[in-house]
Amino acid sequence: QVQVMESGGGLVQAGGSLRLSCTTSGLTFNNYAMGWFRQAPGKEREGVSCISRSGGRTLYTDSVKGRVTISRDNAKNTLYLQMDSLKPEDTAMYYCAAGPTLNNYYCSLSSAIFSNWGQGTQVTVSS
């Protein structure tokens, strides 16, 4: 049974930092592109960042470029999202997602490529 589990969310003041983690089980982690998505109340889910199975390609949505870094440790089956200079508009539920891919350098900010999702971790940034 595939499991995807996020951790690391919390309440932080604007300008602060958080590091989200995502662990998986039941899948061969290094065969999967990984992504972080978020959804704020009343808004659609959006892709924040993704990373290819090899780690060689990363993508970021424009609103987080320069403030967020995605990384993965294939030996530990773990995905990370380092978020710095947080803003109130970053407040959302953050979801980790895994999508199988044959390409070592492919990922996408579209949810369509991701088949396995976590339950989410809440990030709240106060002003």
Overview of the molecule:
This protein has no helices and eleven strands. With 127 residues, it is mostly beta strands. Strands 2, 4, 5, 6, 9, 10 and 11 form a seven-stranded mixed sheet that branches. Strand 4 and strand 5 (46-51) form a beta hairpin.
The helix/strand class is mainly beta
Number of strands: 11
Helices, by number, come to: 0
Our Rg estimate from Cα atoms comes to 13 Å
- Coarse shape: globular
- Tell me what portion of residues adopts beta-strand conformation: over 45%
Mean pLDDT: 97
The low-pLDDT segments are none
First CA to last CA: what distance?
40 Å
The topology string of helices and strands comes to EEEEEEEEEEE
Helix content: under 10%
State the major sheet: 7 strands, mixed
Features:
single chain, 127 residues, mainly beta, four-stranded antiparallel sheet, 11 strands, 0% helix
Topology of helices and strands:
Elements: E1 3-7, E2 10-13, E3 18-25, E4 32-39, E5 46-51, E6 58-60, E7 68-73, E8 78-83, E9 92-100, E10 116-117, E11 121-126
Parallel strand pairs: 2-11
Antiparallel strand pairs: 1-3, 3-8, 4-5, 4-9, 5-6, 7-8, 9-10, 9-11
